[in-house]
Design goal:
By secondary structure, the chain is of the alpha+beta class. The protein has one domain. Helices cover 23% and strands 37% of the residues. It contains 1 helix and 3 strands, in the order βββα. The protein has a 3-stranded antiparallel beta sheet. The N and C termini lie far apart (29 Å).
Amino acid sequence: MQGQNPIPGNSGWQVTSQIEQSDIGPAGQFVNGKRVYFTTANGHSGSVFVPLGQYSVDNVRNLINTAADILDAVGNLTSGS
């Protein structure tokens, strides 16, 4: 896929958009960050929230790799699995 280098064994994915957003942290405080949206190679869509202080290419890649694997695993569940 263009613009990414997924780790072998992980779901392929592509970032589709990102926006600035606030979320609520563990202590109930507002945290400014980026909401990064992506679509996996299997067609499942998801997003990750990244606080601004943790917003880097490597961190976003790691977060999306984890989320994409879970999305694809859950998205492929059937009543027999």
